[in-house]
Amino acid sequence: MTLIRTSAKAQRRARTLGIVFLVFAVAIVLLFVPGANAGQTTTFGFNEARGQAFVIPDLVFPTQAGLYLMATLVAFAGAYQLAHGFKRQNVVLGIVAGVSVLAFLTWAARGQSMNLTGMLKSSLLRAIPIILAALSGIMCERCGIVNIGIEGMMLMGAFMAALIGSVAGSVWVGTLGAMLGGALMSGLLAVLAIKYKVNQVVAGTAINILATGVTSYFSSRYLQKYQALNTPPTFAAIPLPGLSRIPIIGPALFDHTLLVYLTFILVIVIQLMLFYTRWGLRTRAVGEHPTPLV
Amino acid sequence: MDRKTAAESNVKAPERALGDEADRVRGRLPRGRRRTRGRLRSLVIPFLAIVTALIIGALVIVFTDETVYAAFGDGVGRGVARASSVITRAYGAFFSGALGNPVRIITALFSGQGTQIRRAIYPLTETIRISTPYIFAGLAVALGFQGGLFNIGAEGQYFVAGLVTVFVGYAVTGLPGIIHLPLALLAGAVGGGIWGAIPGLLKAKTGAHEVINTIMMNYIAFRLAEFMLDANGPMARGDGRPVSPEIQPSAYLPQFFPNQIEIRVNTGFLLALAVAVLVWWLLYKTTLGYEIRTVGANPRAARYAGMSVARTVVITMALSGALAGLSASTDILGVLHFMPNAFSSGYGFDAIALALLGKSHPFGVVLASLLFGALRAGAQNMQGIAQVPVDLTSIVQGLIIVFIAAPEIIRKLYRLRQPVASDELVTVRGWGGA
Amino acid sequence: MRKRVSIGLVAILLASLVLNACGGGAASGYKVGMVTDMGGVDDKSFNASGWKGIEDAIKELGIEGSYLESQQQTDYATNITQYVNQGTNLIITVGYMLADDTANFAKANPDINFAIVDFAYDPPIDNVRALTFATDQASFLAGYAAAAATKTGKVACFGGINIPSVSIFMVGYEAGVKYYNAQHGTDVQVLGWSTAANNGVFVGNFESTDDGRRTGEEFLAEGADVIMAVAGPVGQGTAEAVQVAGNAWFIGVDQDWTLTAPKYTDVILTSVLKNIDVAVFDTIKLASAKDFAGFGGESYVGTLANDGVGLADVADGAIPSEIVDELEDVRKGIIDGTIDSGWETYLSGL
What we know:
CATH topology of chain B: ABC transporter involved in vitamin B12 uptake, BtuC
Shape of chain B: globular
Number of domains of chain B: 1
Radius of gyration of chain B: 23 Å
Helix content of chain A: 55-70%
Strand order of the largest sheet of chain A: 2-1-3
Structural class of chain B: mainly alpha
Oligomer: heterotrimer
Number of domains of chain A: 3
Order of helices and strands of chain B: HHHHHHHHHHHHHHHHH
CATH architecture of chain B: Orthogonal Bundle
Order of helices and strands of chain A: HEEHHEHHHHEHEHH
Number of strands of chain A: 5
Distance between the termini of chain B: 23 Å
Distance between the termini of chain A: 54 Å
Number of helices of chain A: 10
């Protein structure tokens, strides 16, 4: 073990991290262990009902013993960190966080079973709208726009998707409608911010309030009365052949609707566009420092 | 506060921003001669903004009313008649719900009958009652803005303060009201203050952005309230409902009409006005206020002048949280007398709008809150009488903000002259500030 | 020119302020007002169901009816006040959240009649009719049908928020499954609720279809193939998840989901009907009658016997026809008290 010369700041951070690990260990013992009875077991399942290439047996273990094991692991990490210090602190931090979450799940699933694969899958599904909204945020941030109106844009998009999707009876037209709704609101933001020199935060707040009002007003005036206007079709899941049959990651990653796959692609595309195209350079330059470009 | 005028808007954007910064510091110095005329003039735009928003609201009502289309089918004359009757009905209900019906108030006053008078002034009391928590929440965000901080966490601070207030309200017994009530209010302020100070501390110590952290603290607060007030939770009443026990009568904010359960306007409103004056005094008459404003305007200059930016940030956020907390306290101690699981509905968000509308000035916030209170009270009445969805208020609110923030639109619409000096909004800098 | 137009408009606005008094129409008919909770009248659940009862009454009894939606806890009293001031004869409040305000106003206005859905006062208030429902009786039948329909031997249920009017469904459901096990010697498991442990799965709200979808997917992943969602519109997400997964059934609650959410008809096994509309209609009919002399603290309990609760038709072919016959026997057993649908036992065991 070579001694790395560290600044006082890094040393302090290393020490804090070690203490945090120990606190985690104590928390597992104090918070979770008392909740579990001696005889209880926790079952983690990994198989999706849909079937995969081969079946992974369920992981069954006594809840208390499992929790103590996890607490010991975390405590060991803390002690080692304080005594010697890990080289890859962030990796260890990630592992400790992961183990702590697992301890929580172990506690939550005491006396019952929990399907981890199913949980991964639905976590991803729930993350999709957040990812898309975050991409919108990234684009704005990179070109120096403070966009707090994303919520309003999402609302308007959802409203238009439901309305236009129902009328057209097509998922694609509905998706176009959603994009149109979002674009309409961000167009409003642009007009207010650029033409009328409204502060972006003010405009964003106004857009959020306006979108809330417009969507709920029209929904209680029309969508409520004419249910047919609010029954859009939905995308069906398309399991990717082969890939979706890989245990655990197959159902979690490769058994989704087209929109989910499109989101994956969009993340990559926007990364490429921002950092490897002329447009991206200009956008970032505007965001970093607009003066030289005006 | 004099600001950049739109007439000078050909100045390039970034320079304008810098100019704004400089002006903000300069703007604090009194400019007596321009003041009186400027104030009168500055009322024109907000007034026209409200009127225009209401007109657009009326158009929305008409265009979404099927009876109007049916009437137009029978002829233009009938259509116009129907449209105007729809608007009169809706807005009549709106105004009489927000301000009361003047004719009715006068006849009631002349009749001298208690019930008549109470019913006639009831709408006004509702407007004031609804405005009370708005004033506190608006002040909270406004104070943050003055200190260059964006407190999106008013909602979470409201929840935590609610929990603390209601706990002190029901768990502490045997105290006289003169001690119990201030104690409960203080508890709310402290609870909200701590919830606000945490993101402030994180910002001061680590530079973590307060927007992110106040939002995160919101989630923690929601789940905390959900846990505490769960039907089987530690603070549940125990009758199977996810609500807290009722607070002791000694913690009630005194009512103006104690024997009338429908009139719920209470001394919380006076407290709100007093606190608004206090915030004004703090901001403009004390050293701390000067520091807050300086840090808000230009943290580098503040540091250069020997102020502790970190300390000011924490104090600003704590005060902001305390104000947000008081909005919950007045709701619980003055109106509800218990805390339900689903408590506030968007106060935190409306508060941002209020601070923006009020130009981050305490008195402006009070006026904006009264306006929002009137809009809400009116919409509730309009829903009952004219079957217009309450959500119309959000449309009108959004439009008012747009028009006040972009006076150019109003000026064009009404062919107003460009003023020599116009007010613009006090706002935060971008995400990365300080 | 423009200026003049706008001044004209302002004048109209101001005129409308002065001219329009209450506007509510001074008709002499019997007036019924409903105050919703924060779900709003389009919640496809109990607010919607309550409003349907009033609409039926408007058609059949010729009364005047309207509703007021609430956005905040503090709106409840505002809305009740509005009805009190309009001279409403019967005010119906929907949901336990309005219990305190309803009680206060009922006591202050003894000449106005009130009815509250899903809450019973102890002791009862003279001019308030409490409308409660023995939904365990109906969900017992649903549990019985679910146990018969499952192929994996696991059925599931979850609730919105852990309150009695929700958990009563789940208690009955589990009791029904257990009764089926006892009758048929099977070992069908119930996920999401355990009366013995007095604990179950609750998503924490009555709004998020996303939560419903997620919870549904988790239950499906754990092998359940019948899921009952007792969480209002949240269930739409669950039905969606069930439909996407295929080979599974969904059980709706409150209203008949094949009517209110027809796009999921192919996966709806049945619905546990909580006929709030029947109760509301019954109350309006009672109170608007000429010889009505006050509720006198009487309350309404919807049961299988009075059709206040019930089970919608079970999907064709989902369960064998002899089970359909058995369901009828079980129904009779619950009505005459030979079969225990679980709730009373559960309450006494707390």
